[in-house]
Amino acid sequence: QKPVRGAATPIISTMSLARRPRELWSASYLFSYLMECIIEFVPKEATIISPEKIDENDKKSEVGLYPDRIFIKDMELSMINEMTEKALKKFSERIKISLEDVKNYFNIMGVSLKAEYDKETIDTLNKRLTVLELNNRTVTNQAYERVNELIQNVTHSPLFPHTFDRGIFQSLAKIATHELKDKLMEEKDDDVIYKQIKDKRISGYKSYHKYFCIVYADGDNISKIVSSLDDGKLEKFSGNLLQFGISAFDIIKKYGGMPIYAGGDDLLFIAPVASSPNNNIFNLISQLDDI
């Protein structure tokens, strides 16, 4: 067996381009979608250990569900080139950035290790890949500008039609006033929403409707847990993480929140302080804890 581990970068520098929630969502979704493209072109003779592939019936396109790293076994490292070439081509077509700029900006790295058991390789591959990610490369100005423009695109991003039904990221005011949604006309601008509340003297308006919550959560000791799993159990654990992300997405959306990402053991979302008189952010967090 030849387990291979791959990762897509540069995540930190891309996330740092974000100045608004919708930009943070775009930056995060980019890498989840890139991983989706990679998974699509994994050779049939190879086996994906982690992450679990999302079933088309469960796919939640409004949030990134894939992490930035992938474990594959029974795959020669030489096969990565063909796989990544196909993945980057599809990724380029989808985000409407030239393949040249995509290759200049996004970096897919891989390391391999021969081992008899999956358990022996995970910790070692993780460490090697972490070291590899420290070797940053120069990004061309043009590639940087194209990605930055995509992330900052407000209404015409090629990512939005693929994800949101209305093709627009929810405004913070719309999220904050979710409890009043049945009393408000459809608006996209924050100032217009609050002006509408004031002018029409919307009943039920409370001071907390001016605020929203940003919630971040991650799993404890996930790396240690993964490294301690026996062969065959990592795939199940990976599947459980995926199902957690899908379930969390459903609960957050039902509450009136906006998931930013739910990949692997990481979860980030924006939500109203309350979605109804008897349901507030603490109830939502309790629901997520119970998944």
TrEMBL record:
* GGDEF domain ranges (all copies): 210-291
**Keyword tags:** Antiviral defense, Nucleotide-binding
Might you name a Gene Ontology BP term for this protein? defense response to virus
What PROSITE patterns does the entry give? GGDEF (PS50887)
Q: Which Pfam families match?
A: Cas10-Cmr2_palm2, Cmr2_N
Q: Which InterPro entries match?
A: Cas10-Cmr2_palm2 (IPR054767), CRISPR-assoc_Cmr2_N (IPR024615), GGDEF_dom (IPR000160), Rev_trsase/Diguanyl_cyclase (IPR043128)
Q: Which Gene3D superfamilies match?
A: 3.30.70.270
GO MF assignments: nucleotide binding
Name of the protein? GGDEF domain-containing protein
